Amino acid sequence: MEGHRLRIGALAWSSSMLSSGSRDKTILQRDIRAQDDFVNKLAGHKSEVCGLKWSYDNRELASGGNDNRLFVWNQHSTQPVLKYCEHTAAVKAIAWSPHLHGLLASGGGTADRCIRFWNTTTNSHLSCMDTGSQVCNLVWSKNVNELVSTHGYSQNQIIVWRYPTMSKLATLTGHTYRVLYLAISPDGQTIVTGAGDETLRFWNVFPSPKSQAGGETDSLLGRIFMEVKLEHHPLEELKSDDSLGLMCIELAAFALACAMAG
């Protein structure tokens, strides 16, 4: 697939549609069933597109950029329908709530450190939480109304939050460099994190729907149960020199999470 002039730093799936964000400041929409390189080009960011996420109903695409902007596009637009400029650093971390339509979370970089919540239905900024460190990733649990954030400078940790109070349920430590990648297993119970310390770590974080229905408490919350050492692929080195390598690490992490869930 061709179309971008510079490196691709973000990908997001919507059914058969693959969206890619690039340092060339554009987002390309590709229908993998078609022979065309891309079906739409979305322009609006003034710097590299570093975050992309489709909503659960596949109607809205959120994009974050190194221009400190968060944009929302509908499935047919070539210009952003919503623009949010409150972040003061790059917006890489983006997550849509699976529990409430139009609820969007975004996280800012080192100079920002905040997780912000937005209602895209009413075009309103709901709240802001200063986490104290760079927000690298966000993911929402589908089983409970909680979310996970991973962080870089200066904490290099993983935090589980209860929404909407944003009370901390767990702080997961062990990585010694910024936690660059995060994926969740299909059953919604396990997360896998990848960091610049050359490790992938698997954590039991969220309860199963069955235990929730029975009122059980998961005693394994936040407990790491596997660590994978990436001897020949230091993530911090790949971050600066090999974007493709980073994307491969992210995909490998997700595949491993799926395997563990199965």
From TrEMBL:
<dbReference type="GO" id="GO:0051301">
    <property type="term" value="P:cell division"/>
</dbReference>
<dbReference type="GO" id="GO:0010997">
    <property type="term" value="F:anaphase-promoting complex binding"/>
</dbReference>
<keyword id="KW-0677">Repeat</keyword>
<dbReference type="GO" id="GO:0097027">
    <property type="term" value="F:ubiquitin-protein transferase activator activity"/>
</dbReference>
<keyword id="KW-0853">WD repeat</keyword>
<dbReference type="InterPro" id="IPR015943">
    <property type="entry name" value="WD40/YVTN_repeat-like_dom_sf"/>
</dbReference>
<comment type="similarity">
    <text>Belongs to the WD repeat CDC20/Fizzy family.</text>
</comment>
<feature type="repeat" description="WD">
    <location>
        <begin position="172"/>
        <end position="205"/>
    </location>
</feature>
<dbReference type="InterPro" id="IPR019775">
    <property type="entry name" value="WD40_repeat_CS"/>
</dbReference>
<keyword id="KW-0132">Cell division</keyword>
<protein>
    <submittedName>
        <fullName>Protein FIZZY-related 2</fullName>
    </submittedName>
</protein>
<dbReference type="Pfam" id="PF24807">
    <property type="entry name" value="WD40_CDC20-Fz"/>
</dbReference>
<dbReference type="InterPro" id="IPR036322">
    <property type="entry name" value="WD40_repeat_dom_sf"/>
</dbReference>
<keyword id="KW-0131">Cell cycle</keyword>
<keyword id="KW-0498">Mitosis</keyword>
<dbReference type="InterPro" id="IPR033010">
    <property type="entry name" value="Cdc20/Fizzy"/>
</dbReference>
<feature type="repeat" description="WD">
    <location>
        <begin position="42"/>
        <end position="83"/>
    </location>
</feature>
<dbReference type="InterPro" id="IPR056150">
    <property type="entry name" value="WD40_CDC20-Fz"/>
</dbReference>
<dbReference type="GO" id="GO:0016567">
    <property type="term" value="P:protein ubiquitination"/>
</dbReference>
<dbReference type="InterPro" id="IPR001680">
    <property type="entry name" value="WD40_rpt"/>
</dbReference>
<feature type="domain" description="CDC20/Fizzy WD40">
    <location>
        <begin position="1"/>
        <end position="203"/>
    </location>
</feature>
